[in-house]
Amino acid sequence: MTTRTEAGPFPSGTARPESKLRSYARLGKLDVYDYYPSVAVALSAVLLPVSGLRPTTIVTLTLFLFGAVCVVVAMVALDDVTGYRDGSDAANYGPDDPLRNKLRKPLVAGTLTLREALGFAWATAAAGAVLWAAAVAIAPHPPTWTVVLVVVLFVVSVQYSYGLKISYHGFQEIFLAGLGAALVMGAYGLAAGHFSGFVLVQGVLFGFGPLLFGVYSNTNDIPGDRAVGRRTVACLVSPKGNALFIGSLCAAEFLTGAVASATGIAPWWFVFLMLPVTALRVRQFLTGFRQGDIMRARKLGFPAHRAGTVLLITANLIVGAGATG
């Protein structure tokens, strides 16, 4: 397999299909914003009573949000760099897969060079580090565990597919869920100044969202990932084993809320509030593994995650309203 070091030029007389700005936005996957509402979940947990909300809390969460955008953008840009170099993106977005839009991978499409992509990735990573450092500095009473979490989160994120290549060595699925949970807990810890078991449960449920469209992508990408040695669960097990794994994740998502409600970590009604997400997961799973439409199942994961996020925010507002009533 041939590795690649630089995006090729456009053929003579061929116009660039889109602007550099649009290509950078594609490289940073700015249209896939599903990690960023983690800050809204954290905010909803400290919002009520509004009279007790400090201006510094809003500033802290704003800085954390912009930092999260920069860090995630850097992470996915570096993922594209690695995918371009090892050829997996060319395989997964090539002519044999007409359902994947090649322009979503600017290096494969040739709309950005490797040098441009690396410069963009490291510039956004640096911006993310500065913004998160500012958020920690401004937070009134940041707990030590939160500061450590934010530092670890930054270091690990840029190693997702670059450097240590966490996603290549069997940890991708854990990372996808852990990133979501850590973003919720990091934002909450800075804003609230203490730990909450209920918010941790929400963080885990939030992390299931990106995980449960990521595993469908992995199912589609098995040939390209296997060719470069990317050890996702989809690559390591049989098709039946992969379906069982994804089904188990759906069950684990439901059980997380159910156990939290049963043990008092969450209100008794929390499990019932989250049932619409479970229904959407059943539909997603059947679409992927009964109807055999993996990419449509992946697409269904986005509204499921976004609905779940709205429900998590709703739960926090209900709890907050009850505490002030």
TrEMBL record:
It comes from Streptomyces afghaniensis 772. GO terms for biological process: menaquinone biosynthetic process; vitamin K biosynthetic process. The chain crosses the membrane at residues 32-52, 58-78, 117-139, 145-162, 174-191, 197-216, 243-262, 268-286, 307-324. It is found in: Membrane. This is 1,4-dihydroxy-2-naphthoate octaprenyltransferase. GO terms for molecular function: prenyltransferase activity. GO terms for cellular component: membrane. Pathway: Quinol/quinone metabolism; menaquinone biosynthesis. Its main location: membrane. InterPro entries: UbiA_prenyltransferase (IPR000537), UbiA_sf (IPR044878), UBIAD1 (IPR026046). The keyword Transmembrane applies. It is a multi-pass membrane protein. Keywords: Membrane, Menaquinone biosynthesis, Transferase, Transmembrane, Transmembrane helix.
